[in-house]
Amino acid sequence: MSDQRVTVTDETSGKSLELPIIKGTDGEPCLQIKALPSTLGYFTYDPGYTATASCTSKITFIDGGKGILRYRGYPIEQLAENSSFLEVAYLLLEGELPTADEFKDFQQDITYHTMIHERLKSFIGGFHYDAHPMAMMAGVVGSLAAFYHDKMDMENPEHRMLAAKRMIAKMPTIAAACYRHHMGWPTAYPNNSLNYTENFLDMMFSVPTEEYKVSKVAAKAFDLLFILHADHEQNASTSTVRLVGSTGANPYASVAAGISALWGPAHGGANEAVLTMLDEIGDVSRVGKFIDRAKDKNDPFRLMGFGHRVYKNFDPRATLIRKAAYEVLEELGTTDPLLELAMELERIALQDDYFISKKLYPNVDFYSGIIYKALGIPTSMFTVMFAIARTVGWVSQWLEQEEVGTPIGRPRQVYAGAPERDYIPVQSR
Ligand code: CMC
User: Which of 62, 116, 185, 211 could pair with 180 in a Cys bridge, judged by C-beta atoms 3.0 to 4.6 Å apart?
Assistant: First the structure.
């Protein structure tokens, strides 16, 4: 809180109120409006929370104008270049980079919890083979509460950290099991001699009949993608996790709600939607037609993978992923006509007045799907990849909220329905 104030005056009543200014370490200052309803009798109206900070957080910083993303103060570019997903997970959870010994212990902790309860498999087996994996993930992760709920003391920081580590550890195992259920393959057990991303790929693609060797290129690419998706401050799914958590619900239930929020095409579901859109465009010659559709006010079509609520110049994650997409395709020695199509779409959109004036640039999801596709991940699993990585952010934000002790989240509304009226018996209507 700073000493500066902003005075708000209600010209009708003549009453004034001094609103304190909250200044963080970085970023725009905020007005503390808590006293508005009791002093001036007003609530504030901000659908979509475009102008509202819902919490104070020390985890992730974004400057949308400058294209800055930092985890715990470290620029995303440096973490992408030098760190690993598990080290980033430690950083987000604990606030500092680990020493070598701390990291060894952390790796062991995560490895220790990679297995899932055998009974959970029958839960997965209950789904139809073509169930969307995000629907399965939400159900199965939510059901973890039933396996650990009784033993969890929400007031105990060690219990909370254990739940957080369990989810980070089990998410790849659950994701791979959902995929294998769809394929009709037996569930694979984790192999704790492999690192986090290698283990995930092994559980996804190994079959009992043949030796499977995890591709180093694939594991490295996944590690990068997971780092870039690990947290993104108060986005829709993280805010969902915080809101559900604020009721005192257990963390598995809160993260299951986050998975559901992530699924929407305006959020994490965009990576799947980008591929569906590129498939629909089909050929470079049809790009112009789809750009025109995106600009048409009467057409609900949007260019998936373009635009961001916060980034208004460029998405720093997209810059890193774009480079990685080229590298992965080159290392794998494959070409993908969809990449060519994506580049043409990007080229035309970036020169178009509509996209320039509205500050619509390719976001993280525009390129991630191209890498996932090259690495053999089916389109319906793309958002699941996002969920595995974002689990780290969700649990870090949940832990922070629990430590601070935030009150239950409860927005207000502007009621625009019927005024009070009397009930009319059915025979008189
Ligand atoms: N294609 C065409 N027009 C667009 C697009 C788009 N992708 N995105 C926004 N616009 C237009 C929109 O029609 C509106 O025009 P007008 O002012 O004339 O009404 C204007 O730009 C502002 O749009 P908005 O919906 O008010 O902006 P927002 O900040 O609320 O939405 C967004 C951000 C990401 C939901 C939106 O840009 C979008 O739907 N993009 C496509 C989906 C997508 O790629 N989502 C992934 C986001 S990044 C991953 C993540 O963090 O989850």
Answer: 185
